[in-house]
Amino acid sequence: MSVVDLATATWAPGTFLHRLAPPARDQLRAMAPRRWVAPGTVLISQGALEHHVLLLHSGISKITALTSDGVESLLAIRVSGDLIGEMSALNDLPRSATATACTPLAYSVIRRPQLRAFLEQEPNAALALAGMVADRLRWANQFRVDFTAYPAKVRVARVLVKMALAYGRRTPAGLEIGFELTQSELASLCGAAEVTVQKSLRDFRRTGSIATGYRTVTVLDLAALQQAAEL
């Protein structure tokens, strides 16, 4: 398992740690010991009656939920600096989704009393948490609009652009989305049939916008993909 230097890690814009002032960030990171897990490890489970939150120090996690007909739906991706499980910590309800490690991942478990005490001591952190929740709601609402307003191919392009910009790793070829993503997971995130996603990916490969490998996507021509996404 690869080791990340957490002392020099940087946090992506929009994540909870990025929103905090350095003293509050350091306090939160020191609140609980690190745990390391391998890809595929389930971190929290949908329906569980628990109220702690997870702070991601390194790695990437996917958030999924089972629909009423038993189909797994990919809801979101969480990265280093993100907080997971805040809804149950705030409203006392069971977990609404499952979080699974996509890469080697370091995280800490912060108990609800610890989180509440931290937010009471750091009012700006409480505002940061509210801003993070609001952004996630806005993101979810935008996807609902995309599902109804744009054809599937445009939705696929939009999701690829967003993930490349948010989680892309710069390589000589372009922006490689930094976690394994199956076509079924991409279809779930786009709200499209898997066969439609396959056709869209073929079209984007044909135009030189992307390159694909085993569970990987690299954006070769971001401008062309943005044009396909009507952004």
Describe the protein:
By secondary structure, this protein is α+β, with helices and mostly antiparallel strands. The chain has nine helices and twelve strands. It has helices spanning 16-19, 22-29, 86-91, 112-121, 123-149, 152-167, 183-190, 194-206, 222-228; strands spanning 35-37, 42-44, 53-58, 60-66, 72-79, 83-84, 98-101, 105-110, 168-170, 175-177, 210-213, 216-219. It has a four-stranded antiparallel beta sheet. The longest helix is centred in the middle third of the chain and has 27 residues, at 123-149. The chain is globular and about 55 Å long. The termini are far apart.
Strand order of the largest sheet: 1-8-3-6
- What is the total tally of β strands? 12
Mean pLDDT across the residues is 87
**CA-atom Rg in angstroms:** 18 Å
Classify the secondary structure makeup into a structural class.
alpha+beta
Low-confidence stretches: 1-8
Helical content stands at 40-55%
Please give a handful of descriptors for the protein shown.
231 residues; alpha+beta; 4-stranded antiparallel β-sheet; 9 helices; disordered N terminus
Short summary:
With 231 residues, the chain is α+β, with helices and mostly antiparallel strands. The chain has helices at residues 16-19, 22-29, 86-91, 112-121, 123-149, 152-167, 183-190, 194-206, 222-228; strands at residues 35-37, 42-44, 53-58, 60-66, 72-79, 83-84, 98-101, 105-110, 168-170, 175-177, 210-213, 216-219. Helix 4 (112-121) packs across helix 5 (123-149), helix 6 packs across helix 8 (194-206) and helix 7 (183-190) packs across helix 8 (194-206).
